[in-house]
């Protein structure tokens, strides 16, 4: 594994450590012989920064993210964050699913960085690269400390997850929502059990994720659903889309936002290999559909979006919308931090 390009004091990095993600002597590799972590290796690091600026060219509607993990045991075959593992010379296929980087000092870093005079209290998005409530969080418990810091500073934030472990932190979410803007979204692209087992083998079942939506709603925390990904030719029939939107509405979601599968480098190769094994008759159709790049044609995306929104209106839910404003006075605006690491994003 190549840690040197991301660590301090290597041949390509100034001795000041500018741009480094962690010190070279802070990596500890562990394995745990318990069923839920069998086959998974954890690389514990002490990161140098944690509040990361979104690249300017990104389509994302937020500017800052916190990602306490790299790699994800959810093992979604389509996840575009796979590419980030190549920066460590780790495999973007099975390696992404089983070699998990844990930023063990993430809670302390969040508290320190948002307390800085240079921080201007901007919205922070979590779960946009890999899931912050993946299985590793059950052991490392990084999110309670992160949420506590955000609550204490009344800093607005949002979370996107496929994990049911978020319910462990329900009380912290409630406390934070009393003082700042809190947004929670759960990712449920389909309710087809057979499709779930093959494309998202490490995630909780769709119905369990919808239970999370229900529980959060009952607790007074509005929860939207990112209906992602809508998978062409496998999860996009009118019957499948209707069943999914109906289940989302029944769970009490405040919104549903469809997102068609996109295949960026790193994810594309892994997904196409999976497709050739499980659905070889679709390979040529996908090659044509994604011939122009990572995204399906605009006409296809618009067709899916229009139909899902029609179904949402039929079942009484609407598109995504912003929540209430922060409830504590905002601090005076200051220039943002300028020494943070750009981060790649994933909605999935």
In brief, what are we looking at here?
The protein is of the alpha/beta class and 348 residues long.
The total count of helices amounts to 11
For this structure, the quaternary state is: single chain
Strand content: 5-15%
The stretches of 5 or more residues where confidence is low (pLDDT under 50) are 5-19, 321-348
* Topology pattern, helix = H, strand = E: EEEEEHEHEHHEHEHHEHEHHH
Largest sheet: 7 strands, mixed
Largest sheet strand order: 3-4-7-8-9-10-11
User: Whole-number radius of gyration?
Assistant: 20 Å
Helix content: 25-40%
| Backbone shape | globular
**Computed structural class:** alpha/beta
Distance between the termini: 26 Å
The pLDDT mean sits at 86
Your description of this structure?
The structure is a single chain. The protein is of the alpha/beta class and 348 residues long. Helices cover 31% and strands 14% of the residues. The protein has eleven helices and eleven strands. It has helices at 94-98, 106-114, 136-140, 143-152, 170-177, 193-199, 206-218, 238-250, 267-278, 283-289, 298-315; strands at residues 28-31, 41-45, 51-53, 64-66, 69-70, 99-103, 124-126, 157-161, 182-187, 223-230, 256-260. It has a seven-stranded mixed β-sheet. A four-stranded mixed β-sheet has the order 1-2-6-5. α2 (106-114) runs parallel beside α4, α4 (143-152) packs parallel to α5 and α8 packs across α11 (298-315). The longest helix has 18 residues, at 298-315. The chain is globular, with a radius of gyration of 20 Å.
């Amino acid at each position: 594994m190549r840690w040197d390009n991301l660590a301090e004091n290597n041949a390509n990095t100034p001795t000041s450590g500018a741009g480094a993600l962690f010190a070279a002597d802070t990596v500890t590799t562990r394995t745990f012989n318990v069923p839920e972590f069998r086959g998974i290796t954890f690389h514990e690091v002490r990161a140098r920064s944690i509040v990361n600026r979104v690249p300017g060219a990104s389509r994302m509607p937020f500017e800052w993210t916190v990602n306490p993990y790299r790699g994800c045991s959810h093992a979604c075959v389509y996840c575009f964050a796979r590419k980030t593992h190549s920066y460590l010379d780790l495999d973007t296929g099975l390696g992404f699913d089983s070699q998990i980087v844990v930023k063990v000092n993430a809670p302390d870093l969040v508290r320190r960085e948002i307390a800085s005079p240079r921080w201007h209290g901007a919205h922070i998005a979590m779960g946009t690269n890999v899931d912050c409530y993946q299985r590793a969080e059950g052991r490392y418990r990084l999110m309670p400390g992160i949420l506590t810091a955000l609550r204490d500073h009344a800093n607005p934030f949002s979370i996107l997850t496929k994990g049911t472990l978020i319910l462990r932190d329900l009380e912290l979410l409630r406390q934070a929502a009393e003082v700042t803007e809190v947004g929670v979204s759960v990712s449920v692209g389909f309710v087809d059990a057979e499709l779930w087992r093959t494309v998202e083998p490490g995630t909780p079942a769709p119905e369990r994720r919808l239970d999370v939506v229900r529980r959060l709603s009952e607790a007074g925390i509005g929860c939207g659903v990112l209906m992602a990904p809508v998978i062409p030719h496998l999860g996009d029939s009118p019957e499948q889309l209707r069943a999914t939107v109906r289940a989302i509405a029944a769970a009490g979601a405040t919104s549903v936002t469809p997102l068609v599968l996109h295949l960026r480098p790193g994810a594309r190769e892994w997904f196409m290999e999976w497709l050739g094994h499980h659905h070889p008759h679709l390979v040529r159709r996908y090659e044509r559909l994604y011939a122009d790049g990572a995204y399906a044609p605009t006409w296809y995306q618009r067709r899916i979006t229009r139909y899902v929104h029609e179904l949402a209106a039929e079942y009484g839910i609407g598109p995504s919308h912003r929540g209430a404003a922060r409830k504590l006075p905002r601090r005076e605006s200051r220039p943002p931090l300028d020494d943070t690491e750009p981060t790649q994003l994933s909605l999935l």
